[in-house]
Amino acid sequence: MKHRTFFWFFLPTGLAMILFIAAPLVSIITQSLFAPHEAVFVTVENCGPFGCKEETTIDQSATAALREAEPMGRFVGLSVYLDRGHLAVAEVAEAWRTSESIGEFFGTIYNLPFYRALAFTLTYTFVCTPLLIILGFFIAISVNSLHRHLKGLVIFFSLLPMIVTPLVGSLILFWMIDSRGVLGNLLSYLADDPDLSLKASSPLMWTSIIIYGIWNSAPFAFVVFYAGLQTQPKDTLEAAQIDGATRWQQIRFVTIPHLMPLVTFVALIQLMDNFRVFEPIVGFSAQAHATSLSWIIFNDLGGETQQLSAAATTSVLTVIGVAILLSPVLVRTWRDFKGRS
Amino acid sequence: MFMKKLALAGGMALLSSTAVAACEINARVNIVGNEFPAIQTVGAGAAECSGGDVSSNLTADHQKINLAGMQGDPAEYTSAIIANSSIVALINEDVIRPLDDLVAQYGDTLQKNQLITIDGKVMAVAFMANAQHLVYRKDVLEQVGAEPPKSYEEMLEVAKMIRDQGIMENPVGGAYAAGWNLAQEFNNMFMGYGGEHFKAGTAEPNINTEAGVKALEMMKALSEYMNPDFLTHDSNATNAEYRAGNVALMNMWGSRAATLTEADGVPQEVVDGFAIAGPMTVGGGETPASTLWWDGWTVAKNISDEEAASTFIALTHAIRPAILEDEEISTQAVWLIDGYDPTPAAEGVFAAAQANTIPYPMLPFMGLMHTALGAELTDFMQGKESAEQALKDVEAAYIAAAKEKGFL
Amino acid sequence: MSSAANRKPLPLKIALWSFVAIWLMMAAFPFLWTLWGSFKVELDFFSIADWTNALTGDNTERTHGTPFTGAGYEGAWVKEGFLRNIINTGIVCIFVVCTSLTIGTLGGYALSRSGFKYVFWLLIAALIFRAIPPITLVSGYLPVFFQYNAWGYLPTAIIVLVAINQPFTLWMLHSFFESIPKELDESAKVDGCTQFQAFRRVIIPVMWPGVITTGLFSFLLAYNDFAVTSMILNEDNRTMVPQIAAFLGTTQTEGNVMFAVAAVVSATAPLFVLVLFFQRQIVSGLTAGAVKG
Known about the structure:
The structure holds three protein chains of three kinds. Chain A is built from 15 helices and four strands. Chain A has helices at residues 3-33, 60-69, 79-82, 89-98, 102-110, 113-144, 148-163, 166-176, 182-190, 202-230, 234-242, 247-275, 279-283, 293-302, 308-340, and strands at 34-35, 41-48, 51-58, 74-75. In chain A, the strands form two sheets. A two-stranded antiparallel ribbon of chain A has the order 1-4. A two-stranded antiparallel sheet of chain A has the order 2-3. In chain A, β2 and β3 form a beta hairpin. Chain A is globular. The termini of chain A are close together. Chain B has two domains: 2-130 and 292-354, Periplasmic binding protein-like II (D-Maltodextrin-Binding Protein, domain 2), CATH 3.40.190.10; 132-291 and 359-405, Periplasmic binding protein-like II (D-Maltodextrin-Binding Protein, domain 2, 3-Layer(aba) Sandwich), CATH 3.40.190.10. Chain B has helices at residues 2-16, 37-47, 62-71, 87-92, 100-106, 138-144, 152-164, 180-192, 210-223, 235-243, 268-273, 305-318, 327-330, 347-354, 366-376, 378-381, 387-405; strands spanning 29-33, 54-58, 79-83, 115-118, 121-137, 172-173, 249-253, 274-277, 291-297, 334-335, 358-359. The radius of gyration of chain B is 22 Å and the shape is globular. The relative contact order of chain B is 0.19. In chain C, 78% of the residues lie in helices and 0% in strands. The relative contact order of chain C is 0.12. Chain C is globular. Chain C folds into two domains: 9-75, no CATH class; 81-292, MetI-like fold (Orthogonal Bundle), CATH 1.10.3720.10. Chains in contact: A-B, A-C, B-C. At the A-C interface, α1, α6, α7, α8 and α9 of A face α1, α6, α7, α8 and α9 of C. β2 of chain A pairs antiparallel with β4 (115-118) of chain B, so a sheet runs across the interface.
């Protein structure tokens, strides 16, 4: 394809992405390098319905002058990246110096918000992604072999976990797994432990969120694989059958290689989505047990005082994390690409 | 004193009560605020005005958009409805204007105690009050022969009695959900023990103190009598426990008291046993372990004077004393409006005000402290670390945030 | 089709059927439970006192005289005017799907047919773009939208959703176009077509399975979005999901959970009808076009 033709084909989508993603990305990076000005405080008397009180407030006239001089805020370089809320370099170094055992070192590290969130985020990503691909694949194979009248209905019901909004879906499941809910009761009956509560224990909460994640995303893998199965060349399959391949061999040597590009695609998308896990943590009120990088951003933006620089920094770190995570896939894509052209 | 003032004001209102005042404005009004019945009443009241376009955007996410919506020039929103915790973000960024001139010109129906002044300048007009206080089941307390607790120590004793007699497994309810709620419960307890969040006159944290440790230990002791999932229970979930009859004692928002037992299907014994009282003290202190809150409205800075005047007129109209004649409106909140006659559901908030409960601090850096508390106290509540370590973590998290914000 | 080799032995059939049945139960049970519970009062739906209340509806019976009540639906539809939110969601979904498919198909096709280096970097850039958490993006939009008075309107939300969804659409369509043999449009070009004519005459007829699947995901994204719509739509233009969140209430005030539950069921019902109505198109769209290609 010629450059010119490519340009016109690509222009609309490129423009949309530049305006609404690339430009904000630049401002996010800038924001992570700048912080608000040093506040000038004055003590004043504040009065309200409940009487008067001496309180500290920001001296607006003094601060206005500072803002005028440097509208971007003060340049702080990478210091927000390195503070306790993010990479916590000083704290990690301190823990390394003072810890007597490697266990104690990791214990101290785990107490830092960023690393704690990272621990859950990575666990979630690496447990959910393979499992949901496998589950989605088996659903696709099974549905594909059903009678065609049944397919439509089964497809719809299979999509339900995706269709019911995550916000509410996780809320409903949250209630079902409550120790008094229907699934909670079932589990405590199965475990023969009347006091079993999924919400009071960190490992069980992690498990619940991961199961929710698989349940929620398996339909995605299913639909993509199902569509892929429809394009499976009939003649190859028939040739394999004539050669006497067993069903499993047909799947192993014909179907899976055919679906491999789609598996890469699903893995790519899901690694990324799972790395940004957020909704189940809010829906399950799980922040006492599990936090994620996206949740930290949400928390920074949603407090009484918004911490824009902190949120921007965590966002940049998330993007870097995704890039590292995807690098094997990217290298492969690059090789494919070079081999092609 | 608070009560007296209101009663006096009520008498005066009777004399001066007039027919529905006409409301004429000449410029646009656009209000952003939280979404609950009392604020919806205010929004609807402002919309009665004619002569200018009045719109409102009431949403639970108001705190995420009000600052951005008032920073433009001209600002999208001419007014933000806020509380004493959230006004700070607007003051910090200097997006709201002093109202002294407007009060002098159009504010006849406002009472002096509705005016929120900062350094002598009126920055907001409050219209309702709120506080957390005791909600209990009088039938259950009678059954065990206990008086409603006046302090958290008594609450623990009553809870033990209820559990020992096998009436309820987890008799104490608390909005201890990790995050904002948990931090708020710590604030209550910490102030009850006489703690100050910051070293006087500075933004330096001051919570890793004896009061802080005691507050955490009391919270831990209370949590022993709560549902084991307490770290996921926000105030909605806590109320649901109460309605289901699983909880006999809890510290709950006054604004929820009026409708607590009105939901469909609440068992009769819960409806009959419902009772409220003032906030409790802790550790033999005089000051209740609770905080006082107000909700009020502000006027944006980056708008024309006509728009500011119209906004002020419309919102003053929305909280004129005459709205209280509607019985449904008068029970929606503990109104600070001239002529408000306290309903039984308002007793708890009034008791809190009379007992000299401390208002939630209006400090520029309090929001950061609240966020830090909400995130770092959970390990202690789960028994994973000591109180001192938890408080040390809170201070460290706060210091990192405050440095970034330029407060330290 | 039904050649001897394709017929399955009985044990395999049973295994297959039971696997599908178990999966369907896992997938549909929470929804069916919600559907059942939406006709109860809150205390039964959450059944704190005894979980069997959710089945029998004791509290509902005490309040309304029957174990089923439409109070949640009445509240959501009549009192709160949920229809308006459904219409808003409908508008947003239709426009998001159409726009993102149109520009995404063009872009995805171009990416799959061009061998230059920048294609790779564009794909990588799209991936990086997709990695940015939407909440951060939205907080970046707010000041700009307020400044240009674009905040709060449906078209703004539509454009933002289209843009945020483009990286995904591009990747997905790019993969699908890769699987369509290049010889098809090459030969059309040899016959004297321009690239666009080749695209229109040769590629469009065979691209539907990929486009339908991608469209399905664009639709679900627009339909389920909370992060964007809750922050950039004002109260009158709210779509369903932020409205459902509003029903749930906040810290100091009571929500009406049953309104939310009824709204969730109502929100899913049109999809059910849609899928049942279009199931042949969806299934055959997923199937037929591909076989021809």
